[in-house]
């Protein structure tokens, strides 16, 4: 009975999302804006594929009317893809208006009727890492904020890793917080999983879990990958030009154009292994954190070659150095921390400056940043114009994060966007991080994290691979 309820909730969410997406596609086509049609159509088809697969499984019994509607949808979606390949957007609009939307709405009405009588349940949220107990990775403030907020929402937190999962019995040897302490317990699978690892090379067991239980977080690539995905979009100009370092010749090309550049690991974190390279007429200077070293051209070439060959897995990227300094000469950037809330919408959790110690290029908390309120900071730096900069940064943050979410099938739950403001007052994006840490109001973060997890559980939202291709649909 519970599984039937989950399936029906999942179908309702797929159908609601599809109706919204198709309405929006109609509007985009009317406006002549075809760029966003493909990712929205991809999301619709991925949802249909999930629905179609479940309905045709042996475990799901449906009446003849629903079966007929599903087959009509498949036929019309195939026609839609054919029109898309031919660039016939007006025919797509007509298909949506006359066939797809009415069919989706009829199906939605039928499944809404089915679930109206189901009682409210107490949701179990799994906090998961594939290889390590999450309690060993997360701060106590973060994990306990999740526990207390879940209790307030009449839900439960269960902590576990892959080794705790028994697929045959569908149970987990998880940890729960009871009577003031953590206790190991044998529990059924959770209703939703908050995952704290975003690797593309997932184990077979993790992929199997993702097929059975909704996950909150999905990877979108490293610091170098995302800007490449945004090339050609209206947001491309915010991103600092970058190049992957494969050979010394790569950095030679950069040195011809820029006197100052930054070297940093593509998959780096916590401000580690970041170098500022400064070319002068006499030598090349390297600054790491606040330690400066002068090298000859040959010494610099040896240093770069060692960096390349030392660990091929730790690939570096090159960027021109953006001088973003306070009036007192301290390096800084501004972090915007954005989350999905209990309605599945993105909202600003907080925005704050990260200010380096004097002489350091690093503005990371772990490297000893100075902290101050964002409004106060911007007003101090841009006398009389601080509030305008704050508004601009907020708007860019929300628009950019919404676009990133859209091109990844609306599967992104949390982002940290790092901004710089250069000497000409141009706003740049240093990088976009997933699972952002650093300074944050953990209780406020937990409110959104728990609410969003419950939202996914209630609606049984299973996100497909955000990097999936439209051409693989409906096979």
Automatic annotation (TrEMBL):
Coiled-coil ranges from the UniProt annotation = none
Gene Ontology molecular-function annotations = ATP binding; metal ion binding
| Keyword Nucleotide-binding among record annotations | yes
Key words of the record: ATP-binding, Nucleotide-binding
Occurrences of domain ATP-grasp (ranges): 232-465
InterPro entries named among the record's database cross-references: ATP-grasp (IPR011761), ATP_grasp_subdomain_1 (IPR013815), DUF8042 (IPR058355), YheC/D (IPR026838)
Q: What is this protein called?
A: ATP-grasp domain-containing protein
């Amino acid at each position: 009975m519970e599984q039937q309820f989950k399936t029906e909730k999942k179908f309702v969410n797929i159908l609601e999302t599809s109706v919204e997406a198709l309405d929006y596609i109609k509007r985009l086509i009317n406006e002549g804006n075809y760029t966003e049609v493909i990712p929205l159509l991809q999301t619709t088809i991925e949802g249909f594929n999930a629905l179609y697969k479940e309905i045709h499984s042996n475990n799901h019994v449906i009446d003849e009317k629903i079966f007929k509607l599903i087959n009509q949808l498949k036929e019309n979606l195939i026609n839609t893809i054919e029109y898309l390949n031919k660039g016939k957007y007006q025919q797509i609009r007509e298909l949506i208006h006359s066939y797809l939307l009415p069919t989706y709405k009829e199906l939605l009405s039928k499944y809404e009727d089915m679930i109206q009588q189901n009682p409210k349940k107490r949701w179990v949220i799994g906090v998961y890492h594939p290889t390590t107990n999450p309690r060993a990775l997360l701060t106590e403030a973060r994990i306990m904020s999740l526990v207390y907020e879940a209790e307030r929402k009449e839900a439960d937190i269960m902590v576990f890793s892959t080794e705790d999962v028994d697929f045959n019995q569908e149970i987990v040897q998880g940890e729960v917080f009871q009577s003031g302490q953590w206790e190991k317990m044998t529990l059924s699978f959770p209703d939703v999983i908050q995952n704290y690892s975003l690797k593309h090379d997932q184990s077979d067991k993790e992929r199997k879990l993702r097929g059975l239980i909704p996950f909150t977080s999905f990877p979108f690539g490293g610091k170098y990958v995302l800007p490449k995905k945004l090339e050609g979009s209206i947001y491309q100009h915010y991103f600092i030009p970058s190049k992957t370092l494969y050979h010394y010749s790569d950095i030679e090309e950069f040195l011809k154009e820029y006197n100052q550049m930054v070297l940093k690991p593509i998959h780096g974190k916590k401000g580690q292994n970041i170098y500022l390279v400064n070319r002068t007429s006499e030598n090349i200077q390297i600054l790491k954190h606040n330690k400066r070293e002068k090298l000859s051209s040959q010494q610099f070439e040896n240093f770069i070659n060692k960096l390349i060959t030392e660990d091929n897995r730790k690939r570096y990227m090159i960027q021109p150095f953006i001088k973003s300094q306070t009036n007192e000469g301290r390096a800084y950037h501004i972090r915007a921390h954005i989350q999905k809330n209990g309605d599945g919408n993105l909202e600003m959790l907080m925005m704050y400056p990260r200010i380096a110690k004097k002489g350091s290029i690093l503005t990371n908390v772990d490297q000893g940043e100075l902290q101050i309120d964002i409004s106060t900071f911007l007003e101090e730096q841009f006398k009389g114009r601080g509030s305008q900069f704050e508004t601009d940064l907020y708007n860019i943050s929300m628009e950019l994060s919404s676009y990133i979410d859209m091109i990844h099938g609306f599967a992104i739950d949390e982002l940290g966007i790092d901004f710089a403001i250069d000497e000409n007052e141009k706003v740049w994006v240093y990088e976009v991080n997933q699972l952002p840490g650093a300074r944050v109001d953990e209780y406020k973060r937990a409110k959104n994290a728990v609410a969003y997890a419950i939202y996914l559980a209630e609606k049984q939202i299973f996100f497909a691979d955000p990097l999936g291709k439209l051409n693989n649909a409906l096979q």
